[in-house]
Amino acid sequence: xxxxxxxxxxxxxxxxxxxxxxxxxxxxxxxxxxxxxxxxxxxxxxxxxxxxxxxxxxxxxxxxxxxxxxxxxxxxxxxxxxxxxxxxxxxxxxxxxxxxxxxxxxxxxxxxxxxxxxxxxxxxxxxxxxxxxxxxxxxxxxxxxxxxxxxxxxxxxxxxxxxxxxxxxxxxxxxxxxxxxxxxxxxxxxxxxxxxxxxxxxxxxxxxxxxxxxxxxxxxxxxxxxxxxxxxxxxxxxxxxxxxxxxxxxxxxxxxxxxxxxxxxxxxxxxxxxxxxxxxxxxxxxxxxxxxxxxxxxxxxxxxxxxxxxxxxxxxxxxxxxxxxxxxxxxxxxxxxxxxxxxxxxxxxxxxxxxxxxxxxxxxxx
Length: 366
Prior knowledge:
The protein is mainly beta. It contains two helices and 20 strands.
């Protein structure tokens, strides 16, 4: 324990004297600019009841004697690194650029980390348009909560929308933008349908640096002889109402949205003798205070499945998470924070379960 404490103290002191940069320039000339960016992160988490994951927590497991255990987990696998390339002008003010970003997350392990691709795309960026080809964030349900849980991210607990390979076109105006994309179908059943996930999003930019977005998506899964739609509509917003306070949120309704990390999939309806999409209502709301040296936030996330009658006994119906966090920015790229989350799960015709997670994180950003 003494060796661990000494090593941690030395690491913290080293990070505090390192120069802070938004990114590290590797190559720069008249035709290109290549930068290295990312952060090193240490996480220590305590969970009062067994969760679905130590490193990507989303909901508590069923209420059984075996799951009634508290756990402690340390990890560095949420560290993240990336390369950002700004290339030459291709034609008439349009430049080419690209991003390759990865982390060390391995859902099957706690400390045996592996490289995992997060982003990998090329972009043609003109004065009023953008074309992206590669892996990027979804434009459907594009809101992201402010949280220290960088991999659980309250997915399957209200937050919807992930990353996937896609071809995207975006048109920019002074007060808005419209994006359309064709994305990887993701699931085996959707791949067999022969069509991509199709999404669209319009964003209206508010005068106070905020924005409101509305998005929709459509796809299909082929299951035996049935065709089950994937569809959804989502509203997301970022509304600063003072210099320091910002309201963040997202609400989504749809069916069979599991490709976007919802818990809604498909089910077999014996009465109609066909497979159908499970409905969902999901969302999250958060208030963020951004200070010079301190960030403080609290919020709530929840996902409810709407066809409970078709769930098996013991299946997870609803998930919720109430969270509160404090981040202290030490400067020179170093900050640390604590986030406390109360996770709750409703299981059909079974005892509900809940877990308290206390997460402590230290991060050095370069």
